[in-house]
Amino acid sequence: MGLTDASADKIILWVVVPYVTFAVLVVGSVWRYRYDKFGWTTRSSELYEKRLLRWGSPLFHFGLLFVVLGHFLGLVVPKSWTEAVGVSEAQYHFVATWMGSLAALVAVAGLLILIYRRRATGPVFLATTKTDKLMYVFLAGSLLSGAWATVQTQVIAAGHGYDYRETISPWFRSLWYLQPEPALMAGVPAAFQVHITVAMLLFALWPFTRLVHAFSAPVQYPFRPYVVYRSREASVSSRAPRPGWDPTNTPPR
Amino acid sequence: MKVMAQMSMVMNLDKCIGCHTCSVTCKQAWTNRTGMEYVWFNNVETRPGLGYPRTYEDQDTWQGGWVRTKRGKLKLRAGGRAKKLATIFANPKLPSIHDYYEPWTYEYDMLLSAPQGEHTPVAKPKSLLTGDDMSIQWSANWDDDLGGSTATMQDDPILKHMSEHVAEELEQTFMFYLPRICEHCLNPSCVASCPSGAMYKRVEDGIVLVDQDQCRGWRMCVTGCPYKKVYFNHKTGKAEKCTLCYPRIEVGLPTVCSETCVGRLRYLGLVLYDADKVGAAAAIEDEHDLLAAQRSVFLDPDDPEVVAAARREGIPDDWITAAQRSPIWKLIHDYEVALPLHPEYRTLPMVWYIPPLSPVVDVVASSGNDGEDGRTLFAAISQLRIPLEYLAGLFTAGDTAPVERVLRRLAAMRSGMREVNLGREFPEETATAVGMTADQVQEMYRLLAIAKYEERYVIPTAHTEVARELEEMACSLDFEGGPGMGGAGPFGSSSGTPTPVAVENFHALAARQTADSPYGPTTPGRVNLLNWDGNGRPSGLFPPGDIGGGAAGEGGDGADEEGRP
Ligand code: HEM
Ligand code: SF4
Ligand code: SF4
């Protein structure tokens, strides 16, 4: 298999679009980090409203953390590895389906609360930008189509359900080896195709929305001293020196 | 010994008249922006009262500051690092906007543009969050001058902690004002709470700042500060706080609140301290020992060993001289009349207060006695338990002895200076009764009553060698369009400096520049100047259409006449 056996539309959808998405995600994030550190924030709306956020945000985020973990196990870890450690397909399917459904349910419940809160709470709605709305469309789209794909092809399907680890997962990994195999995606159920397409659009949108906050999850917090000191000398700004403030250096010879 | 310098403030509460000039000038300088409408870096509270935000001192509710664990370690009261991360998605201890107050404006343009009618037009209050009509329920100083206090005062966290008998005796009310800014603590719990490490204490002068470029809006610092002096800008999604006006301090000028204080009651100066001792002092077991522990962290700038150690740390000589001349050091150490606000929060705050004698004087005077007689005052100080306990609840974690000592010193000064004004000597025995000499008391009087600008504010300038780094440093409020010293150069804001690229940011900035608020005047083409932050050109500010050419001929009069029959 390889690029040659696939039709042009498959190549566009399962090779070009993923790579373009990846490029936009990486370049866009670097660009934004470079030029818009000031806009890099959660833009928390907790000041306006706490009651709904208290449920919605943790449900959504914790649900999503498990969903992300599940995607890692399903897409990145090859089937042969799990089988090598003695996990049979049936066991994998059972755990993945039920844990995945539970995580999805929690995340979707949280998301619904968050979206309801965005619309129904006056100050929160006023503080919702157009980008927020667009982001929510694709976020909800990814989450709901993914949840639907799981329900349709795993939960209510007979037997072990659709085995995406034979098609989608190798395709996903093939992109990373730079040996894309779009043909693997040919027979994939429509629900998954939709889910993957919407998710790619979400990733392309990512750097330009508030979702960038996920990249700065404060993992370093537990490891630093409590009180931070900074000297005037040890400057950390990305800002170029203002004209006229260049340091007095001897000119290079 | 690791010597560090701290820029600190002392406020003499006896002289505060509660005029709020400091708050207003601070607001004009720093927080008259969308997203910061509810924020007062400097606020003045009437005590007893609930404070701003309401009941912020009740740490059982708000969980600010540090606690000492059983093993003698310091822990953030709101929970350690793991708990902080676990509750990051919704911070359970974040005050909501209603704990501050919902900001509002008035529909002023209705007063001018309402059609002729039977009733006088009114300017209805409009929420600055939703733009809707609102009924005003609370504000930053709703219980100013005890207004409405009979309904709310029982919730004052200090009163709640005082002994039972207080409630019944509340009719003999006393009151004073408490102006507050960020304490620029030696052991700042706001900095410790920040997951991204965006908050920091400046090594050179101890000013605590938020790096606006690194803040990610996790809003944990708001909870961390027991004084609730970090605020969340709900427009930009970043935390902001009092900067001790560092752009002014760096060039030797006092903060805006000090500069404009009508009572001239604020003092600014350096204190040298031993950074190695901070942790142990903050973790001392008995809350009543915290005052002494914090004092023991300070270093005597006249001690040659301290001077040598300071030089070794690279503290410049003019800074050491400034520390020796510091009015703060005199008030804290020589005269021992200044006390920290809420030492029990264990952040080692560095804005100290001279507690007010006036509640005592008022009671003495209103009972027909001589409010300037030393003996009467001394007796009154030890008898009037309520003001004493209340002040102790604010300044010494409830220990009345240090407060009583300060008040006796102030009383001695008051009665002794009357003698001087009557042409007699300052009575030495009055001074010795409070452990001072007559000369010392008179020096203290000079500093408290008639000290000039240069004596009240002893501020060494930042060193020009490092000026470029200062300028380059990611500083707290100096972002594009912000109120810092930066801002657009002659070539416009997009020249030379990075431009925000995020779509939402672009819109936020563009909108901000037209003084957006959810409430706009009801008449199209009008602009609410009271809400305009001075940026951009809101539509309606200038006459529409072609401004050049025939504009002069089509002035207001002409247009008016056209409309008339
Ligand atoms: C582990 C890393 C993450 C952390 C620490 C984190 C934290 C936060 C915080 C503190 C807020 C603000 C809540 C508020 O006070 O209003 C927030 C909002 C949000 N986060 Fe995350 N987040 C993370 C990852 C993610 C991911 C991976 C996504 C989506 C794919 C996401 C989507 C959102 C959305 C949509 C909101 C807006 C909620 C609303 O107000 O409507 N987050 N996040
Ligand atoms: S008073 Fe200032 S320095 Fe102290 S904890 Fe609060 S914000 Fe931080
Ligand atoms: S300006 Fe001075 S006198 Fe007036 S309220 Fe502020 S601190 Fe008090």
Automatic annotation (TrEMBL), chain A:
GO terms for biological process: anaerobic electron transport chain; nitrate assimilation. It comes from the Bacteria. Residues 11-232 form the NarG-like domain. The keyword Iron applies. Keywords: Cell membrane, Electron transport, Heme, Iron, Membrane, Metal-binding, Nitrate assimilation, Oxidoreductase, Transmembrane, Transmembrane helix, Transport. The chain crosses the membrane at residues 12-31, 52-75, 95-116, 136-162, 182-206. Pfam families: Nitrate_red_gam. SUPFAM superfamilies: Respiratory nitrate reductase 1 gamma chain. Its cofactor is Mo-bis(molybdopterin guanine dinucleotide); heme b. InterPro entries: Heme-iron_electron_transfer, NarG-like_domain, NarG-like_sf, Nitrate_red_gam. It is a multi-pass membrane protein. It is found in: Cell membrane. GO terms for cellular component: nitrate reductase complex; plasma membrane. Heme b binds at residues 61, 71, 195, 213. Coiled coil: none annotated. Its main location: membrane. GO terms for molecular function: electron transfer activity; heme binding; metal ion binding; nitrate reductase activity. Does not seem to have nitrate reductase activity. In the N-terminal section; belongs to the nitrate reductase alpha subunit family. This is Nitrate reductase-like protein NarX. It comes from Krasilnikoviella flava. The lineage of its organism: Bacteria, Bacillati, Actinomycetota, Actinomycetes, Micrococcales.
TrEMBL record, chain B:
It is found in: Cell envelope. The keyword Aminoacyl-tRNA synthetase does not apply. It comes from the Bacteria. One of its GO terms (biological process) is nitrate metabolic process. Residues 546-556 have a biased composition (Gly residues). Keywords: 4Fe-4S, Electron transport, Iron, Iron-sulfur, Metal-binding, Repeat, Transport. Residues 514-565 are annotated as: Disordered. SUPFAM superfamilies: 4Fe-4S ferredoxins. Its cofactor is [4Fe-4S] cluster; [3Fe-4S] cluster. GO terms for molecular function: 4 iron, 4 sulfur cluster binding; electron transfer activity; metal ion binding; nitrate reductase activity. Residues 7-35, 173-205, 206-235 form the 4Fe-4S ferredoxin-type domain. It holds the Pfam family Fer4_11. One of its GO terms (cellular component) is nitrate reductase complex. This is Respiratory nitrate reductase beta subunit.
